[in-house]
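pinning this so it doesn't scroll away 📌
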Amino acid sequence: MMMVWKKPSYGFLLMSIFWFSVSFLQADAQENKTYQSLQHALFSSGQLTGNPGPSNIRWIDNGNQYSYLEKNLQHFAPEIRIHDLTTQEDSLLFHPAEHIFPHTSMPFYFEDYQWSKDETSILFKTNTISQPNTSWKYNISGIADYFHFDISSKEITYVVNRAFNARLSPDGKKVGYHKNGEMFIYDIETGIEKQLTNSSVEDLYNGRFGWVYEDAFKLTQAWEWSNDSRHIAYWQSDERDVNQLSLPNYEGLYTEYNTFPYSKPGTNNPTVNIGILDVKTGENQWVDLEDENGLIPRIYWTANPSELAVVWMNREQTEMKLYFYDVISQKKRLVLEEKSDDGWIDILSFFSDANNYLFFPSDRNEFFRMSDRNGFNHIYRYDYDGKLVNQVTEGDWEVTQILSINTETETIYYESTEASPLERHLYSISFDGTNKVQYSNSPGKHSFNMSPDGKYYFDRWSNTETPHKIDLKTTLNGGKLIETIDNGEAVESYIEEYAYQPRELFNFTTEQGVDLEGYLIRPHNFDPDKNYPLVLMIYGGPGHQGVFNEFETSTWVQYLAQQGYVIANINNRGSSGYGRGFKKSVHKKLGLLEAEDYAATAKHLSKRSWIDENRIAIRGHSYGGFMAALSAVLHPNVYKLSLVGAPVTDWRLYKSIYTERHMGLPDENEENYDNISIMKHAHELKAKMLVAHSSLDQDVHIQNTMQMITAFTEAGKDVDLRIFPKGSHAVTYNSQSHLLLYQIYTDYLETHLK
């Protein structure tokens, strides 16, 4: 029986958004209601995204139940609820109004939670501080306070404050965490804190990363519990020889600077070592890899309780070595080695939830590796001697994520592009490569949240004609529907009554013989006899993919369509989903091929009689800002206007690990570093250009924009510049600044492209 999720808070929020929007809508000539203003459009985003479904899902009871957070509107705080998949019953587990912070009268609240492995207790995270300031070195993960909750006694116990990444041990008896440069454990039974390391100094941390590692490798926790709770393996990060970067804060009487280590291409990287702590004795030992000047992007505990797998890579990330280290014998052995002559080696996907390409089941002496070594990303199975047992998946398509590995049934559940590079679907396959089953059948882009055993999963999906739907299903009966969380009816009703322009997929072959796929969105009240301006909305970074068979949810895009713009995007070379050759063709020459593909797309689309070839704009942010600026100077006769947000303008100015992965070392690739610098081509600019950046951007520093503006000035080119001093990499820092930035972008289009 299909059921519709009817949680009061979701319905209340959707109804509130609905009535807010209705009150500001006006009818056009065809009686389709349109946005009254840009503010109305931006604040109406929930109309197109629909119900987000349950948040912070944690699978428990061997996957037969899941917990989730729901905001209690009476107390304005999240509560934890349990949903039982066998009975379909939903119950309250933790209500914050019933608890106070220990030794205070303050009502308890939390931001995140984690279960103990035996599901008898919960570790709460609260009071998170994630923004940089002058009192401590910047990192992404932030610091927080942690509290332990015993489900049986209902008792909340204080654990630690201002700590990084606290985690319960697998046996549930201890909490590990980093604080003030060192590793600690807290014994839940005795309430005693024990410091495990004692060697940190300024810019040297035990169990914590700096900016470059966290951002480039998507790592926030710099340590791992062993499966038997006896050891902690951790990174020691030494940034003392890394050059310092300073970001200005202009808010006070005198400018303050947040200064932190930041490695740029060719300069000193952090030196990292892997230590292993015996939490009982306090003994520490180091894993000596004998490979200097390299990177250690991942560690994993294997099925053997005392054996740690360590991944080493060279700076350019074209070589990878997998070592196994035995804590008892203190010996290491090389298990797997890979080298690439025509591109970088992936150990994660930067733009998806696939944070790992290596998997070590806790109960088998074998591991799985995702690799594109044969042209497409597939799953390979190895024994603990590094011998290839078999290739699990194969074909001219990509495995994009492993979702679950069930060792009892010897089944892997994975997401792939087999149906189309523009779609994602769920499959299962046996360890030996047989018995492949497809579970998701509706055309479109699907994303999955799956129980650890692969028995149940949430499927959130859409296509160009279908708003996002959320289904809860089981793999036990070939993908049988258990419950509909959101059937998309609210969004469908909205777009029946109010103006909405869907994506239209297209493909073509460039003059260079490259097959490209994209989408376009026509203006509202489209008239083929009229002539419309075109805006290319791009990002384009390596491994990213901007075009899918999915529902368009950007209300800014819808607003622009209502103002008479054609919007388009393309999966340029460098995009994921099309195989190794397509993705890694941009290696060591970022931007050049992508710019060719954007220019070819503009030329192809302008062949349509209703697109004006003399009114084409390109807009992008971050890597997209780089591409919007580079395209304007490399193909100056194509674009009338360029909107540039937080751009990298010379890759020698960006972080080392990301840049060297895609560009190699500057001394060995100097010509291409020069060729893709905006500054080198500044004299070619013909388009009107607006650049927006924040002086506090901790990722792409404003130094990039300032050097570019200097080059344009010296070339006699007038460029419009807007600085948001308090913003982040997103440029903006609150709802008002967000609205203002997009008003500036929109007005610029209206003034110079219309």
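📌 and the second one:
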Amino acid sequence: MTSSSEGGDSSHLSGDSSFKGLATLSLAALGVVFGDIGTSPLYAIRECFHGDYGIAVTHDNILGVLSLLFWSLILIVTLKYLTFIMRADNEGEGGILSLTALIIRHCKKNRHERWLLVSIGLFGTSVLLGEAMITPAISVLSAVEGLQIIAPGASDLVIPVTVAILALLFFFQHNGTARLGSLFGPIILLWFTCLGVLGFIEIIRFPEILKAVYPWYGIAFLLNNSLHGFLVLGAVFLAVTGAEALYADMGHFGRRPIRLTWALFVLPALLLNYFGQGAFLLESPHGSHHPFYALVPSWALIPMVILATMATVIASQALITGVYSITQQAIQLGYLPRLTVKHTSASHMGQIYVPASNWGLMVATIGLVVGFGSSSKLAAAYGASMTTTMLISTVLFFFVARDIWKWNNVVVIMLVSFFAVIDLSFFAASMSKLFHGAWFPLVIGLLAFTLMNTWKQGRILMLKQLKDRTLTVEEFTESLALQQPQRVAGQAVYLTANPDVIPVAMLHNLRHNKILHSEVALFHFTTERVPRVPNSKKVEVVKCGDGIYKVIARYGFMESPSIRQVFSLAHHKGFHFRFEATSFFLSREKIVTGLKSKMGSWRKKLYALMMRNAISATGYYDLPSGQVIEIGMQVQI
């Protein structure tokens, strides 16, 4: 692996490579990264035997399902993600968007190939939004369904209690996770400990279940049950649905803590519980309706339901904050309009809150709970989103290994083909449930992909039209030498999408007011294809002459731009504007459709609608509202 990748972990350890530092990071990773995959025992085994395509609870089928589940965890999570894909980091950050940015940054492709790769990565990111809607719904609902075991008459309370918990979860998001973060690790630690202990007790009673580690039991299951056995793969896949989170959260904790926590604690606890559920079913085949809670002694049912609910809330929290991160990255990369992004922690810049994403996610999640009514019905929709995402990760990994790491073509093709066969098998099995709910995350993904692609293309068309109305900076300074307009004392900042051309707002102001400030700065914010840009390289100041400056601010796609920070950094490079005395000029474009282009009329109208609902640059860049002047104009695309 390249040196940049090897350096990723050290930055997260902040120079503390001691056992204590590693243990602290591992505990934090346990609470954030493994919550999703750690709550899968609540429903994964149950759906194999009790779901829409549940198989008969026989001795051979139990061993076969456990064998498939065991090797899925080993091959997909341990081998594919933790061993190979987590090596593909973009300056320490993981996730599909980071992987896509890494490919574009390093691979020399023609325009069509780049567009195809970006589209694939963008669709994979879009589908993740569908998963993020389903995860809180199925996780919390499956935990609360334990009430039916404690008190069968309480079944009518399951939906109201689940909705109340989810509503509280979303309503408290604006406070941030900093205060609760210290509790996440210990709670999930207790959860995994209970998983392992409960499973171990049952395995001791029926050690025969351990034979399922042999792969031929899984192969025999698929051969003996033909199509029905293949369809059960869609339920088996539920055990690995949190694997993508391990890669996406790599930037917060580094590879080493995640790998160690998985290998030494999480994987053993999960396998003990899954095999324990299998052992229970060998003794009591009739208990397939909820084998997880069947492992719990009657005296511990109430505490276990409470602990399971807490664990699922934590798992949901990880996905919710993941959506905030995806939204911010999409904004920074130019695939979404400006939205309000609030930082909830002064010490952790990655802890953010996006109100629009939060409320949209809340409505969708609660709607799923009410609409589907049970975790079993939601399970059909759940696997489809992740199988799609994992398949796309495999495709993108191929280009990283071949074009960036320069691996041998034969090795790359063999390795990726092996992973692709596994991914395609799970994908096909999940798609068999298309009309049972699997359509939902795909529709959400298609909708999100359309919105992001429309915004990107519409923005390109609009900037092209604006470019035709203006002058380059060089042409403008030459015109000043020929005919100097009235200059007034003061300092003005114009935000511009292109640092080499004069903003239309500046020309409009000069044309209509016949004046120009004595000192003018053109501020251009650009998003680099790296997660973060160091402060030493963040700001560039160019003196163009005649009192005109260009200030180029470079931010990573994991960062939020700040005008105050730019002023502070630019001051050390000869830019001495006084922030409190500066006037900020912005353009307010009104989109008018009409010109012929490759973009359909309905997408132009959609782009115009998104433009109207985007927050202004004042809020996005944290400009002082009392110093902002907006100049309106119509733009036809």
